[in-house]
Amino acid sequence: MDLLELVSSNKIFGGLQKVFSHQSTELTCKMNFSVYFPPQAEGGDVRLPVIFYLSGLTCSEQNFISKSGFQRYAAEHGIIVVGPDTSPRGVKIPGDDESWDFGVAAGFYLDATKDPWSKNYRMGSYVNKELYDLILSAFENVVDIDRIGIMGHSMGGHGALTSGLRNPGQYKSISAFAPICNPSACPWGVKAFTGYLGEDKSKWVEWDATELVKKYDGPLLTLLIDQGAADNFYIQKQLMPENLVEACRSVGMPVILNLREGYDHSYYYISTYIGEHFDFHAKILKA
Amino acid sequence: MDLLELVSSNKIFGGLQKVFSHQSTELTCKMNFSVYFPPQAEGGDVRLPVIFYLSGLTCSEQNFISKSGFQRYAAEHGIIVVGPDTSPRGVKIPGDDESWDFGVAAGFYLDATKDPWSKNYRMGSYVNKELYDLILSAFENVVDIDRIGIMGHSMGGHGALTSGLRNPGQYKSISAFAPICNPSACPWGVKAFTGYLGEDKSKWVEWDATELVKKYDGPLLTLLIDQGAADNFYIQKQLMPENLVEACRSVGMPVILNLREGYDHSYYYISTYIGEHFDFHAKILKA
After folding, report:
1. Do B12 and A269 touch (CB under 8 A)?
2. pLDDT tens digit string along B163-203?
3. Between chains, do B66 and A69 touch, taking CB under 8 Å as contact?
4. pLDDT reported for residue B2
5. A single GO molecular function, which one (chains A, B) (predicted)?
6. Domain tally, chain A
7. C-alpha torsion sign, points A179, A270, A135, A96
8. Which residues of B lie inside 8 Å of A (Cβ-Cβ)?
């Protein structure tokens, strides 16, 4: 715990919504992340499931914890929830703040291989190795290592899917709100992958959920995908859940696609269905 | 409806969270306000109860609609919820942006009498006359004029209490989160009242809930007051709910004071108990 600095702590639904900062070795910068401890964590004599939540473009660790209302459901189910930031912060790479969909707050949860991004933009290893291990060690008295799930929104939905598919067995449950499902084939993804990974598209398949599904051979997973039908990014084909569903069907991976009439891409939409996602994760993690 | 401009509309919990703007005659500026229409409002063949929600210092109409999670409960109960902004905007009075607790976003829901504030800073009449009448006329097909309540937070809790007590019968149900209960006796209130109303304290009692309770003689009211015990502003005696409770007891007005162990002044706290407040209002408004 020496390496963690407490940024804030607020009581909500009987538990504590905390934000910590720490020095990341993967990203070589100081990073914030959030942890919600439900009331069941008090006392520390019981190990609880954990869900990682990955946020979307332009977000920090704050959006999800202040706007989604997830704490009510995490408290009901007794689940710890961890939320990282969306990119390295303060590393000052030329061009890192010129776009809202590339660079700062747009790390895409991958490990960049192209200069000048490859030194710091390693959100894939940060989330799935460094932060994951940090949570397990710093909170080992309350975390159940065998019951860990992951979810995310938009770019973070892509992150949740790729984190789960690239690391078989590490996450028992996976769900996503309006995820970027096939980044190799949409404008956001092409821009990010070209910038972070280079022009060679054979490298892109390692970070594309629709491609990763086709070669997944880990433990059985069921993917829960949620999508607002009035989401402009869905209509503009940035997200393409149908491509992911088609890939799942081609290899027999169970997938649920819930299309929500009239809902958009915002946290108003997420807050409406976050309870259903917690039910889904709890059913798997508490089985 | 011609006078209303739709700023945004987002589907949440089956209803629509809208923000409108309009030109206010009381404040002589353009103002935003929010309206949540629960799913029961669709079709417009049933008149629903309405709750006005008044926000606290530094807030706009956005904080409550994005952070409290109230829409879940409004949808469950079938209640329309209206949220005004917290002060005139863009009127550019010298000194209006020098403090976070006076001027912009700090209108205190009163009618200023002192220059240069008296022309624009008329939030009392704006909320209780202009906006109230606007809601009743613009949405007359879905609003039940006989079932209107009011609630608020901090400065807006003061606003809810004074609005209800100054206008007997206009609001059937009143509740407040961490309200400024006795502004004449706390630093925030003394600063605001001196600035907006002048030095003559005999004028202050007209806008002080603890004083207004003592001379209230309208229909029976029960005040629901919620207060986080770890709220720094409570500890620093900016809020003083005990003074309000004492005044209620002295005149026999029913009051409920719920002190919440460990909770602070934030929307994390409000989101935890907003459901209980909707239950309270629904019990009265739907009786």
Report:
1. yes
2. 999 999 999 999 999 999 999 999 999 999 999 999 999 99
3. no
4. 54
5. carboxylic ester hydrolase activity
6. 1
7. positive
8. 10-14, 17, 66-67, 69, 71-72, 228, 230, 262-264, 266-269, 271-272
Give the Å distances, CA to CA, from B147 to B48, B53, B254. 8, 15, 20
Distance of CA A122 to the CA centre of its chain: 14
Q: How many other C-beta atoms can be found within 10 angstroms of the C-beta atom of residue B47?
A: 17
Question: Which CATH number belongs to the domain containing residue B255 in this structure?
Answer: 3.40.50.1820
List the structure tokens of A60: 């920090």
A215 burial via Cβ count (<10 Å: 0-12, 13-18, 19+): exposed
Query: How is residue A146 written in tokens?
Result: 């065998």
pLDDT tens-place string over residues B203-242: 999 999 999 999 999 999 999 999 999 999 999 999 999 9
Q: What residues make up the domain containing A123?
A: 5-286
Q: Using an 8 Å CB-CB cutoff, list chain A residues near B263.
A: 11
pLDDT, tens digit, 9 for 90 and up, residues A25-73: 999 999 999 999 999 999 878 999 999 999 999 999 999 999 999 999 9
Model-level ipTM above the cut of 0.85: yes
Chain B interface, mutation test: which of A268, A269, A273, A278, most B Cβ atoms within 10 Å? A268
